[in-house]
Design goal:
206 residues, six-stranded antiparallel beta sheet, 4 helices, elongated
């Protein structure tokens, strides 16, 4: 399979979102709640494309501020669309195809490992995340489901609840990652043989 065929489609996504990394937009008609939990309020529908400022995750919701009105409340995390951060990270990653794999490496040009690759990519765009795959899985971003994957999301591999490898999601089940000392940074299918089981998916929002 010619995995490089995905690059033009990914590049085309750059123009689809132009908000800042700390602002998201609803991807569809979204239910907005003034309160959630034991006394969840009656939901109010927000139109597609409503701009929201993120505050903090809370269970399966995200506390938000509606920018236009200043109203505070909660929306389900699965109804968030990625900001331009993820698009920019995924696009930047393509510049480093072929970088050698070096265990413990932090250099996007001269040598990098899988978690160093994701860490340094986000650092390019002003976002600090943990250094190791497992700490990124445990501490950074929000969990999403496979059907919510967008460019720039992180795909983690491992078992027994521990992440030992990860890649940056690109397009149609492909990831870019620091693979092995033989291949370095490459594009692969996330279901290709040779990977540990997929552990989970996360989105770094800011």
């Amino acid at each position: 399979m010619n995995k490089l065929k995905y690059i033009p489609a990914l590049m085309a996504l750059l123009s689809s979102l132009t908000v800042s990394a700390s602002v998201i937009q609803t991807s569809q008609i979204t239910t907005f709640y003034e309160s959630v939990g034991t006394q969840t309020s009656i939901g109010e529908e927000l139109p597609e494309g409503t701009s929201l400022s993120l505050i903090t995750p809370y269970e399966n919701y995200y506390a938000v501020n509606i920018i236009e009105t200043g109203e505070l409340g909660f929306i389900p995390t699965n109804q968030l669309i990625q900001s331009d951060l993820g698009i920019n990270v995924a696009t930047s990653a393509l510049n480093y195809i072929g970088t050698p794999y070096v265990y413990g490496g932090n250099d996007l040009v001269n040598g990098i490992d899988c978690s160093g690759f994701s860490q340094q990519l986000f650092k390019l765009h002003g976002v600090d995340i943990e250094r190791t795959a497992n700490l990124q899985y445990m501490n950074n971003g929000i969990f999403i489901s496979e059907d919510q994957l967008q460019p720039g999301d992180l795909v983690f591999f491992g078992d027994n609840g521990k992440a030992i490898h990860l890649g940056v999601y690109l397009y149609e089940d492909t990831i870019i990652h620091a693979s092995t000392s033989i291949h370095g940074v490459v594009i692969d299918g996330m279901y290709d043989s040779g990977f540990p089981p997929i552990l989970g998916f996360k989105r770094i929002l800011f």
